[in-house]
Amino acid sequence: MSIQELSSEQKVELITCVIDGFEVTVPKGTLVIRAAEKLGIQIPRFCDHPLLEPAGACRQCLVDIEINGRAFPKPQASCTIPVENGMIVKTQLTSAVADKAQKGVMELLLINHPLDCPVCDKGGECPLQNQAMSNGRGESRFEGAKRTFEKPVAISSQVLLDRERCVLCARCTRFSEQIAGDPFITLNERGALQQVGIYEDEPFNSYYSGNTVQICPVGALTGTSYRFRARPFDLVSTESACEHCASGCAMRTDVRRGKTLRRLAGEDPSVNEEWNCDKGRWAFKYEVAKNRITTPLIRDSNGQLREASWPEALAVAAAGLKEARAGVLVGGRATVEDAYGYSKFARVTLGSNNIDFRARVQTQEELDFLTSTPSTAAYSDIDKADHVLLINFEPEDESPIVFLRIYKQVHKRSIKVTSIAALSSRGSEKLNANLIKSAAGNEVAAINSITGLTNKSVVLVGERAAETVGALSAVANLIQKTGAKLGWIPRRAGEVGAITAGALPNLLPGKRPITDAAARVDLSTAWSVDSLPTAQGMDTQEMINSDLQALVIGGVDPMDISADAKVKLSKKFIVSLEIRQSDITEIASVVFPVAAVVEKSGSFMDWQGKVRKFEAAVEQSLNRSDVRILSILADEIGKPINLPTVKSARAELESLGAWDGASPSMKSVAGTEVKSLSNDEAILTSWRNLLDKGSLQDGEENLAGTARASVAVISKFRANNLGVRESDLVRVSNSYGAVTLPCVIGDIDDSSIWLPRNSINSQLIRNLGVVGNSVVKVAKA
Amino acid sequence: MSKLTPVLSANWDQADSFTIEGYKRSGGYTAVGKALAMKPDEVIQMVKDSGLRGRGGAGFPTGNKWGFIPQGDNKEHYFVVNADESEPGTCKDTPLMMANPHVLIEGVIIGSYAIRANYAFIYIRGEVTHVVRRVQQAIADAYKAGLLGKNILGKGFDLELVLHVGAGAYICGEETALLDSLEGFRGQPRLRPPFPAIAGLYAKPTVVNNVESVASVPAIINNGVAWFTAMGTEKSKGFTLYSLSGHVNNPGQFEAPLGITLRQLLEISGGIRSGHKLKFWTPGGSSTPIFTDAHLDVPLDYEGVSAAGSMLGTKALQIFDETTCVVRAVLRWTEFYKHESCGKCTPCREGTWWLVQVLKDLEAGKGSAADLDKLLDLCDNIMGRSFCALADGAASPIISSLQYFRQEYLDHLSAGSCPFDPAAATLFESAGVR
Asked: Do A57 and B344 touch (CB under 8 A)?
């Protein structure tokens, strides 16, 4: 979009100034350094960052400025001064004074900077190195003693600090304060001894700390896992998309000789701007885990898995599926193309609508909600929102870039944020959220009590809303009543795309209702089949509990669904498509190895519904995307789906387009109430911490070192009743099992207790058989 | 002696000058009643008309500063006194607050009333504990006397005055760094705009004035604009404190009309140390370019000093006689600036680090004439390139000393060491103490 188009849309006042003899017109408020960029004039800089507030600290961007004939007596920092009409700017290209000032500052920056570029991670992609060449003196005149520090200092388990390399631009500290809201690092001391530091025993455990490594203009902050691993010029970079959550971050994956060495946040102003979270950045070792499946496996007559050739495994799988009553569990992490493959496979090859991507608590109410109530919100709506309402959704843990976007507006415009939750989390505290305390399961009354939403308000609902009977009905009603924008934000990256791909028992691709004959005609025509099954299929839980004989299972951990899922599944003929050995592998009859995200192409759909395409970063000829294997398997069965490549799946799905007929309306479900009975009982509430025991974080110890501690959060009232003080152990139990954790006394509903859902010593389905909304016993341990 | 005009220092010879009774006996706390009877804007206009300029160094007209505060904005306003006097040589606010803290408090009440502030702060440097105690006592006494707190003198004006003690950082004398420090942050200068008059302390409209500027206001209210403007020169009105230190026979504070010359001040202060002659001096503290005996007749007002190539600054006249090594003196100052650089911007942080190393070598007679050019070029890369004026102050004595005493630098190099006996420059040298 050009500036003119932008301005006509938003009615921005335009300013015209002259830089190095060229006229440039930019929106009012544009900084001189940015206006110069428009002309292709690069003014050297270190502290300047377009997404951070100006600091003017490094003084590298000095230029000569005159306004209406009046010249500033000395060069000015172009990163702090907005352009004005009649301004004449002379950069280093046309002003000898500016040029000398810049060379002077560069020389000063280098006097205390070590000459360790050959061993520095940043060497080869270093703004200091580059700009010292472009805007510095050839040689230093400094002959004295350089400042030295002990090195490196671990400011967290995943970020190391080499203080002598630091140019004190304060990008990292400003990022932490202004963008992440985690001011855990600051500048300490003064003069040349000024340095970045943490408070004594409180490491830089921000979920976003990796961004500071990325925006550090020198090699002062490095990632522990990447340190000394590679030279930038040996890396092959591929634009990719993050597979960890529905935030939809653009990424860059850097590979050397077939091995992923690091991932960086990519740039997409409409999604993640330039940031990502530490999970997205550092959790990629799972793809090289020792338990990676590399060949097809089949279960032999002794019940043991053995390696098999592709033709043999395909034959066994086909035989088991051919005449069986079967279903498909997709898992929430499939790409859109793979999900489409599963969807078509279920309908065409298995002749069934038994398909569900939801490997978690799921209900018919949610199915109705997803079918009837479209998400309309986008990041840009958060940017303009007057009020953001969070329902069963903790953005910092469950969709961290959504959190950053809300925090940005809280920081800039102090927008109103309301959270319906049992407790005030660290995230909601940072958002200065107004908390409507509701025990898990009892949110309906709180949702119904919301007033004052406008069409500029944004309601963000988490997947956990499905755990409360009536909550999604109340949300649908609220949206209809107020006209507020809705965003349903699941945790996993594949869920939104799977809806579009039709990986649900009541939806065909393009969100076509299964019950609509016209919709079925669309698809049977496109797929060249005579007919499609008409009845709504089974959902995940129903398939597991049913007498279905066979299931095709994508990336699913039965422990995400229920404690007894594995046992029930073990009675069926299971065809598993997996990256690594899992609980499903143990019970599968046939296992096909599939490619990890970095090894394949495809796309995710973020919570906004925006397609996030990516190409293979690592070429692995043995690994194939799920859709390709499904297509071969369908051929083997004799009911082909004709999706031999990711590309063909993409093209076919796109050609189907979206459903333009009527969508079913929401069938409202009334809320119920969960009550705790006595003083030693509590209503369990939980969510997954961003960094926890999730299997995609396996193998990255440095990242795990910054995870939040596993604690039980109780109210002061309960603590007094139990006679416990902060960090005393409490035991949480029910008829299934128990969890014992140190407690934290927090701002939580008196009848509730919060536990992490899948963290160390607190894996709720495994330990308690439930994730929330039910009554547990709490005692001093 | 006729040149002196003691106003702020008029009662300093009284044993109880620092008490509320002592101050009142010499006419104290009479201006506040008059001011509170005026409209705030009239007070501002009077200070504007007096031509009173900031005594902290920059010389910005005090009344204009007060006039910048937006009125009727329904925001809290703050009045802040900068008492972080830390520059080498500068020693006027400290004795003023010791001898007569109440004149400052009276000025604070009047200034706060004028800008419609109900909260005022005095930010004192941390090292001067004796001053802190004295001002604390004075504030407590003023509260007791109904001069601070609710409904002052029954005129319906409320003012809370808070004394804040700094942690010992020169940079906190820079007004925005002072505000950061006052808010509890590390003292580092803020990006301007916004200026403190728009978004100062806690992002509210704020006036920051030097101690002496504020203390000068009661006399203006009491004696009138004509009385004040009769003193001083055309653009530098009134009286001020000149602080003479170093190789003078009677060092101390001398209150005189602006525009007096060093020659006149030396006459009053008993002249240069006996048997010696003036070599160089600072007109306004260590951050102002030095002068030599050629500048004895420069009128010490804002314009006069500026025209002669320096700055009036804080009127801290450090006097050095011919026994002093200028290289050594400049090195000592530079070490001060290196120590006090806050570290925020590159030229100051790295520049002072480097300057000290170069000067140390030069003082030890190491290096060549080319190093002098390098030193000057380095100063050129620091001066006017930094975030605030601290680094300008660091470069000034170096540039000016090279301007007047280049040969002395070269003498170090040809001798291979410092040609001066440092002991000869000490004040106790004549007593034979070594």
From this structure: yes
- pLDDT tens digits, residue range A418-466? 999 999 999 999 999 999 999 999 999 999 999 999 999 999 999 999 9
Percentage of chain B exceeding pLDDT 70: 98
User: Can you tell me the distance from the alpha carbon of A764 to that of B175, in angstroms, rounded to the nearest whole number?
Assistant: 56
Helix (H, G, I), strand (E, B) or coil at B125: coil
Determine, yes or no, domain membership for B433. Answer: no
| pLDDT digit string, tens, across residues A452-461 | 999 999 999 9
Examine the domain organization and report whether B373 and B302 are in the same domain. Answer: no
Q: What is the pLDDT of residues A108-157, one digit of tens each?
A: 999 999 999 999 999 999 999 999 999 999 889 999 999 999 999 999 99
In whole angstroms, give the CA distance from residue A772 to residue A734.
Answer: 12
For the four alpha carbons of A177, A284, A601 and A502, in that order, the dihedral sign comes to negative
Determine the average pLDDT of the residues in A740-758.
97
Q: How far is A194 from chain B (nearest CA, A)?
A: 6
What integer pLDDT is reported at residue A172 of this predicted model? 98
Tell me if B429 is assigned to some domain: no
ipTM: 0.95
From residue A391, alpha-carbon distances to A387, A400, A485, B55 in Å are 13, 15, 13, 59
* A246/B362 Cα distance (integer angstroms): 64
* Total count of domains within chain B: 3
Express each pLDDT in A320-347 by its tens digit: 999 999 999 999 999 999 999 999 999 9
CATH of the domain at B355: 1.20.1440.230
Cβ proximity of A272 and A612 under 8 Å: no
Q: How many CA atoms lie within 13 A of B262 on its CB side?
A: 29
B248 and B225 within one domain: no
Instruction: Look at A192 and B342 and tell me if their CB atoms are within 8 Å.
Output: no
B186–A187 C-beta distance less than 8 A? yes
Smallest Cα distance from B347 to chain A, Å: 6
Q: Which residue of A has its CA nearest to B337?
A: A191
Tokens 């005579």 belong to which residue?
A: A530
| Cβ contact B381–A104 (<8 Å) | yes
Q: Which residue of A has its CA nearest to B186?
A: A188
Domain of B124, CATH number, reads: 3.40.50.11540
- Asked if B218 and B247 sit in the same domain, the reply is no
Given B169, B352, B385, which is nearest A62 (Cβ)?
B385
Choose from A97, A103, A108, A169 for mutation: most chain B CBs within 10 A: A108
Statement: residue A477 has pLDDT above 80:
yes
**Which of B172, B350, B379 is the mutation pick for testing A, counting most A CBs within 10 A?**
B350
Residue identified by tokens 């997404």 is A51
* Chain B partners within 8 Å of A149 (Cβ): none
Contacts of B354 in chain A (CB under 8 A): 108, 111, 142, 144
For residue A713, what are the β-bridge partners?
A744, A754
Average pLDDT over residues B291-296: 97
User: Which of residues B271, B303, B321 is at a domain's end?
Assistant: B321
* B186 and B293 co-located in one domain: no
pLDDT of residue B433: 47
Q: Using one digit for the tens of pLDDT, what is the confidence trace for A485-495?
A: 999 999 999 99
Residues across chain B: 434
Choose among B342, B346, B387: nearest Cβ to A109.
B346
Rounded Cα distance between A184 and A199, Å, is 7
Question: Are B133 and B160 members of one domain?
Answer: yes
Look at residue A2 in the predicted model and tell me its pLDDT. 47
CATH number at residue B263: 3.10.20.600
In angstroms, rounded to a whole number, what is the distance separating the alpha carbons of residues A475 and A465? 9
Same domain assignment for residues B42 and B189: yes
Inspect the interface and report whether the beta carbons of A105 and B191 lie closer than 8 Å: no
| Among B267, B299, B321, residue at a domain's last position | B321
The reported pLDDT for the residue numbered B429 is 61
**B10 lies in a domain?**
no
Residue B3 located in a structural domain: no
Find the chain B residues whose C-beta atoms sit closer than 8 A to any C-beta of A. Answer: 169, 171, 186, 191, 338-347, 349-354, 357-358, 374, 378, 380-382, 384-387
Are residue B246 and residue B225 in the same domain, yes or no? Answer: no
Residues B91 and B225 in one domain: yes
Which domain, by its residues, includes B150? Answer: 20-229
